[in-house]
Amino acid sequence: MxxxxxxxxxxxxxSGLGEATARHFAESGAQVTILDRDAERGPQVAxxxxxYFAQTDVADEASVAAAIAQAKDKMGSITAAVNCAGIAIGAxxxxxxxxxxLDAFQRTIDxxxxxxxxxxxxxxxxxxxxxPEPDGARGVIINTASIAAFDGQKGQxxxxxxxxxxxxxxxxxxxxLASSGIRVMAIAPGIFMTPMLAGLPEEVQQxxxxxxxxxxxxxxxxxxxxxxxxxxxxxxxxxxxxxIDGALRMR
Length: 251
Ligand SMILES: NC(=O)c1ccc[n+]([C@@H]2O[C@H](COP(=O)([O-])OP(=O)(O)OC[C@H]3O[C@@H](n4cnc5c(N)ncnc54)[C@H](O)[C@@H]3O)[C@@H](O)[C@H]2O)c1
Prior knowledge:
Elements: E1 7-11, H1 16-27, E2 31-36, H2 41-48, E3 52-55, H3 61-75, E4 80-83, E5 94-95, E6 98-99, H4 102-127, E7 139-144, H5 148-151, H6 157-177, E8 182-189, H7 195-198, H8 202-210, H9 221-233, E9 241-244
Parallel strand pairs: 1-2, 1-4, 2-3, 4-7, 7-8, 8-9
Antiparallel strand pairs: 5-6
Helix pairs in contact: 1-9, 3-4, 4-6
GO molecular function: oxidoreductase activity
Family: Belongs to the short-chain dehydrogenases/reductases (SDR) family.
InterPro entries: NAD(P)-bd_dom_sf (IPR036291), Sc_DH/Rdtase_CS (IPR020904), SDR_fam (IPR002347)
């Protein structure tokens, strides 16, 4: 697959890693539809990259079905789905205010894990209808895990569980979709300079950066976007999770 001829749906494309991916894909010639719940930033970014926007809640079945239909209609086909929509919460299993609120745990799983699967399954159903490329390829799905899937920290039970689920479903999805010529990969980012991180005090940012062995800095969202683009084009990558973290292992 070539990025220049890709028609991609990118969830979370209104901000951070998804936005950087949307911009990188569009600059490389790809068609892009942003699926995001942010009805302000989403259309703005889409307009800047001459792409499309569908306001979407990834955890909602009907919302994603409508968004995928809209993306297919605008772009003619869907050949890539990049799942970047996600939320991060911090709460201990038992904290100062008592046990971890169950609804916060469930909401995190619902958006990060169920939402990723929801978009993937509906995008894959569309991809399966594509004419295959000469090597049989019909599409690629890229899910976003986190290094918290492997070394989650205090307060990350919900987030790490959701990202562990993303890691866990990558191989079986790749196996399920193999006969349709659809690959499934996951990226596990370390700490990236997205709006979430940019809001932290300078000294906290510096401390986080200092913990990264090499290079000792936070990740640039474009580095995530470029890895996603590489995965689109590298047809032998399938069923695997790639850490992109400067060798960071969280303690
Ligand atoms: N930034 C990091 O350091 C980092 C590290 C590891 C993993 N990640 C993961 O990468 C992904 C992107 O993170 P980011 O830092 O770019 O975050 P971000 O907050 O900048 O962007 C997330 C986007 O997802 C959208 N979104 C949230 N819930 C949604 C929903 N239910 N439906 C549709 N859209 C929704 C938001 O509107 C936002 O535009 C997340 O899954 C996050 O867990 C980020």
